[in-house]
Amino acid sequence: MGLCHGKPIQKTPETEEEAVVNHVEHPPTIEELPPPKPQTPKQPKFSFYIPSPLPASYKSSPANSSVSSTPLRLFKRPFPPPSPAKHIKALLARRHGSVKPNEASIPEGSEVELGLDKNFGFSKHFFSKYDLGEEVGRGHFGYTCSARAKKGELKGEEVAVKVIPKAKMTTAISIEDVRREVRILSSLSGHKNLVQFHDAYEDEDNVYIIMELCTGGELLDRILSRGGKYSEEDAKAVMVQILSIVSFCHLQGVVHRDLKPENFLFSSKDDNSTLKVIDFGLSDFVKPDERLNDIVGSAYYVAPEVLHRSYGTEADMWSIGVIVYILLCGSRPFWARTESGIFRAVLKAEPSFDEPPWPSLSAEAKDFVRRLLNKDYRKRMTASQALCHPWIREAQEVRIPLDILTYKLMRAYISSSSLRKSALRALAKTLTVNQLFYLREQFGLLGPNKSGFISLLNLKAALMKQATEAMKDSRVLDFVNTVSSLQYRKLDFEEFAASAVSVYQMEGLDTWEQHARSAYEYFEKDGNRPIMIEELASELGLSPSVPVHVVLQDWIRHNDGKLSFLGFVKLLHGISARSIPKA
Ligand SMILES: Nc1ncnc2c1ncn2[C@@H]1O[C@H](COP(=O)(O)OP(=O)(O)OP(=O)(O)O)[C@@H](O)[C@H]1O
Ligand SMILES: [Ca+2]
Ligand SMILES: [Ca+2]
């Protein structure tokens, strides 16, 4: 196995870096522990986390002091403490060209390399504009140096330059990744938790991405410097920033796909410094009704649906769940010695909340983590919802961002039958204070008029306030245009709540049965009516090949021909033929 593919890294100021990459690559100390067990003493802690190759001035300085002042063996963990994460091997194989014949259509590296177009159309004069300084960080694809601008708007300012050697771009995919990284970085702008992009250059050897310099070190270093974990209060402060930038990216139709503590940097060394997301090297645009299928990311942080090759922005929320789990307890929720072992754990294992410190953490904290680490992406919180979760919301003043999920659900609602609409209205009557908080925030963002109504035209206006260039690539604007142009009367809050409630998410709650039962009671009083099997079948989009009389007989009450409880729940989902078992 190997992340370094034997290509010498060009223009590397330090030679010891290679050793660091190897250490990341071959942690010598880990043992396979599928079900979480208390750590055994033979496991040396942190020994494979060798200090980052940064010059002393860029290291998060509190790190060293607190690591040495707290003997690491005192930390009881089910798993070893977090170390820099490796990218998924299949991803690297595709990028580096060593692909198994049936795995991808990208041809092998060397012989096609000749035909690869490594011109990016960037300016060629990097060295006339900047003096390159020392290396401040390194990843698998590039290394980052400080630099000082010699002329132009930034004259005299220190910036960061991510240098990506063209020698490492051995496949069309790896070149496309770099193009996309620059396109995404340059099209997203205007959020304080996003590293600010300045410019991109290239020459024969490298691509240079110029951005603001963050001097506070990686979130991973700060976690380790605190003995591996954060207090709840400190974890919330980090979470607010992560959720805020990720909700912004998702609204723009950008999925990061590599969220991990190494990819968040503090802008300065201050304790309360701003956190910035970096490294859009694996990011992609995703249309609101599209699913991506390439397996991308780092093993510890990868969502189950990514491994199943059908995912969207929810995959980032899973990674955030892994990050917050680590922040709160210092261990990874899904861990094994091998990549396939990690994947097995991600797909099958439930994270442990039994080991210390979990029993002493708040119920809200655990609920928050669980709702992100839900294996069913449809039941997972969105970033905007996570900001509304009581664990976050009750601690600090948070600005709740617009959620594209609201738009998707509204579109489905508007094209539903009146029967399904009244079922959803009944469900919305059972919403709790917390759920209503989120919906009220979303409603407020859609600009209700003085009488408390929103029109679909407002959907577009609300989105335009947040629009960046990225929305053109991700087609979010096109999507919202189609929703905005639907013919529909205005919605008051009650109807909005019915239109924007996610049945799947509610189903994920422990209290789902109660919600569904009381919703059914409301529906009985106001909405339930006799329905023909054929009507119900077309309502649910069942194809004529489905033997509807066999499948649907339990969904209609025999005595009065109205919907049974089961039929009501099915109707709420508006399920499609695919999920109906063939009788
Ligand atoms: N703007 C910045 N300011 C300071 N340091 C930075 C900046 N951008 C990146 N770095 C440092 O350089 C490292 C590598 O950058 P980056 O993560 O973008 O590279 P990569 O090769 O894509 O990494 P990966 O292996 O995770 O894919 C970061 O982990 C960080 O330590
Ligand atoms: Ca990185
Ligand atoms: Ca990267």
UniProtKB/TrEMBL annotation:
Record-annotated Protein kinase domain positions: 130-392
Keywords of the record: ATP-binding, Kinase, Nucleotide-binding, Phosphoprotein, Repeat, Serine/threonine-protein kinase, Transferase
Residue stretches spanning the membrane: none
Record region (Disordered): 1-48
PROSITE patterns on file: PROTEIN_KINASE_ATP, PROTEIN_KINASE_DOM, PROTEIN_KINASE_ST
Family annotation (InterPro entries): CDPK_Ser/Thr_kinases (IPR050205), EF-hand-dom_pair (IPR011992), Kinase-like_dom_sf (IPR011009), Prot_kinase_dom (IPR000719), Protein_kinase_ATP_BS (IPR017441), Ser/Thr_kinase_AS (IPR008271)
Keyword tRNA processing: no
Residues that hold ATP according to the record: K162
CDD domains the record matches: STKc_CAMK
UniProt GO molecular function: ATP binding; protein serine/threonine kinase activity
Any one Pfam family match given in the protein's UniProt record, by short name: Pkinase
Gene3D superfamilies: EF-hand, Phosphorylase Kinase, domain 1, Transferase(Phosphotransferase) domain 1
Family annotation (PANTHER family): SERINE/THREONINE-PROTEIN KINASE
Protein name, as recorded: Calcium/calmodulin-dependent serine/threonine-protein kinase 1-like isoform X1
Origin species: Ananas comosus (Pineapple)
High-level lineage: Eukaryota, Viridiplantae, Streptophyta, Embryophyta, Tracheophyta
